[in-house]
Amino acid sequence: MNWDYFKIIFIPVIVVTFIRVLFGANIFENFSSVMSLNFFITVPFVLGALMIYLSKEKDKPSYTYRIFFPWVGVCFFVAVTIAFQIEGWACWIMITPLFLLFSSLGGLFGGYIKSRKRDRLNISLVILLPFLIAPIEKSIKTQKQVFKTFTSIRIHSTKEKIWENVTSVKRIGSNEEHSKLTKFLGFPMPVEAVLDKNEIGGFRKAVFEKGLIFNETVTDYSDFNKMSFEIKANTYDIPSTTLDEHILIGGEYFDMLNGTYVLKKISENEYDLILYSNFSLNTTFNFYAGLWGEWIMKDIQNNILQVIKNRSEV
């Protein structure tokens, strides 16, 4: 292998992989965290800056090169962390946009350093940047933020038939799945949901693939009109291969809280079925994680509503 090629790509990738391992180590848990805005910004920034600083380009690399060449390093970093099971595919789909953006900014800065006669002190400070900022962000107390996801669908059927499919969802066949985003991310798909009694205090067990189960308790109930329920995931019984630790439901960062079905009559045998749910996030980047959380929850809810619609209109 050409040494220059190794130096330009693999050395920066090795450096940021080492930073990732340190950030995820238990001995550093009071100092740093992978689930931090600092990690998502400074690590790709370091990667981009190092790649351009070490590049074979002239003292003043083109801006196109500075912006886009670091993306090659991001691809290698993603491949390494997935191959060694350091990070999961779903996490990377969500944070890659940030990595591409800040690796480009790092590339621009690396090009600036390179044009300043290879200032080694500056590039050394860049490498230390994640560790300099980590304790500052760690000292910031995070607060749980609740997000509401609202979805609805128009159904042409009787209220009795619709409600029967709402309260208990029989086993969903693979040909009934309409989810796109969650399936692409590898999240467990819904299998079935069974309610033991149609009243407040009723217990509803919602089963998903890969051992994910939600235990739901009915908190508000009105026949053919409304059903609300609290949600508790079997957090500690979920197999480690089901969800990445960073997006574990009921874990440190993400949790499901409650859901509500509302059936609204539009005309004779025409109804709007509304489903909304609340989930919470506890990170320093809720503004970004919330966007993904809402997209994923809407995808899951739309899939369930579509199943209910198809079964009710038969």
TrEMBL record:
Q: What are the transmembrane regions?
A: 9-28, 34-55, 67-86, 92-113
**Keywords, comma-separated and alphabetical:** Membrane, Transmembrane, Transmembrane helix
Record protein name field: Polyketide cyclase/dehydrase/lipid transport protein
